[in-house]
Write a structure and sequence with these properties.
Elements lengths: L2 H9 L13 H18 L2 E9 L2 H8 L1 H16 L7 E4 L4 E6 L4 H14 L4 E3 L2 E3 L3 E9 H16 L12
Antiparallel strand pairs: 1-3, 1-6, 2-3, 4-5
Helix pairs in contact: 3-4
Length: 171
């Protein structure tokens, strides 16, 4: 679909604010702190994915802000369709989103990241018009169970008699 040609028809469509569909960055920060504390207690991993939605600026400029908001609502629905009950998504910038996956393992991050990429291979529907977009993202996986396991030898060395605690050992 050519964006300029759809502008007049899409301008007639009404949409709500796209920010209503996702959590805000402050709630994301609170959930990250909670996920870290829970992960530390339960020795489980979690992941933070930072996403950039391709073509949003182009779509927003060509079709107007109301239609850009409708596009973002579709993005939000698509992202939410990839989340589990304990996960969350937040819009952190114009075309930037953060996903908190908790609890999850390293393999989960890879599989779910691929599922998100696949979900965005299909066009998004804005007022009946298919708009192609994609997503780029980076992920950080935190496995506190693994980190705690690696800390045990350091803790043991700290308790050893005879000055062993004065040595620095990295794992």
């Amino acid at each position: 679909m050519h964006l300029a040609g759809a502008h007049v028809e899409l301008d007639a469509a009404q949409g709500q604010d796209a920010g209503e569909a996702l959590d805000d960055p402050m709630h994301l920060q609170e959930r990250l702190v909670q996920a870290y504390a829970d992960a530390q207690h339960n020795r489980q991993g979690f992941a933070l994915l930072m996403l950039n939605i391709n073509r949003f600026r182009e779509i927003n400029e060509a079709l107007g802000h109301d239609n850009g908001d409708m596009f973002l609502q579709q993005v939000a629905r698509r992202l939410q369709s990839q989340l589990h009950r304990s996960d969350m998504a937040a819009r952190v910038g114009g075309d930037e989103f953060a996903l908190l996956l908790y609890p999850c393992g390293r393999e989960d991050v890879l599989a779910r990241g691929q599922a998100i990429l696949t979900a965005f291979e299909q066009p998004l529907d804005v007022a009946g018009f298919p708009l192609e977009s994609g997503v780029e993202f980076g992920a950080v996986f935190v496995d506190l169970g693994e980190a705690v396991g690696r800390a045990e030898p350091a803790d043991e060395a700290r308790r050893m008699p005879g000055g062993a605690a004065r040595q620095l050992v990295l794992f």
